[in-house]
Amino acid sequence: MLRMSLLPPGLPGPYKRVMSRSESTRHRPAWFFREYEPVGIDLGSAAAVAAYDRNQGTDPDADDTLLDRLGVVAGTRLVDLACGTGSLVVQAAARGAEAHGVDVSAEMLAFAQARAERAGATAHWHRAGFLDYAHQAGPADVVTTKSALHQLPDFWKQQALINAAGILRPGGTFYLWDVIFSFPPADAAGHLQRWLDTAGRPEGRGFTRADFEAHVREEFSTYAWILEGMLHRAGFDIISRASRTPTHGEFLCRRR
Ligand SMILES: C[S@@+](CC[C@H](N)C(=O)[O-])C[C@H]1O[C@@H](n2cnc3c(N)ncnc32)[C@H](O)[C@@H]1O
Fold first, then answer.
1. What tens digit of pLDDT does each residue of 228-240 get?
2. Which residue, 18, 169, 224, 229, shows the most beta carbons closer than 10 Å to its own?
3. CATH code at 184?
4. Cα of 225 from ligand 1 centre, angstroms
């Protein structure tokens, strides 16, 4: 199993403080994926992040349900990769977990930190990406990532999953939720059209049809059967998989 990082040795890191992008990227080879230039919805301002949080329908109760499912209790070490506005991390911290939120976006992390302060919860925030997060706390019990792995093309998804496995202790839990396609490839157009016809909300009341169209056109969502192979090669056993719809799904995995 490939366990090595694609990053050259001697990189700085874990990023326990908010770093500038130039500081975080200056040691990278020219061919390295530019994960600090994410695709998709613009999240480059506090207003855009606040709109994202509203549109995403952040729901602490749903976060708590997921944390219960994953067995997160006081003392659990949890890392949420691409944590966004941080609700899952804050809910984990509120129940006494050692909760780490990792994201490439300084604006998202600022929103997440403010959410933690409002909740009186202590969490650890790292400005870092799937590909360059260097975990320096002890091995994690649980690693999660929701609605974000699609930011990476498939070659880089595999590297991200190898990194996620490297953060976890053997037997630790990995949870992945995303736009994941489970329809037959030959039927893609019809399934995507049905999703786009039903998912969009009016401007200001959620993600719009144009947002979802841009997702399909510009982001890197992939098939469940491709992710299954990647998860296996990264060192995970798949405990369960579920497709809520032909376009969205989850994997619950255990690190071998
Ligand atoms: C659609 S949001 C999802 C946020 C959160 N997980 C949620 O469920 O609401 C995608 C997040 O991924 C982050 N992101 C994009 N590329 C990333 C990367 N390579 N590494 C870490 N975070 C990344 C973005 O900054 C953004 O916060």
1. 999 999 999 999 9
2. 224
3. 3.40.50.150
4. 22
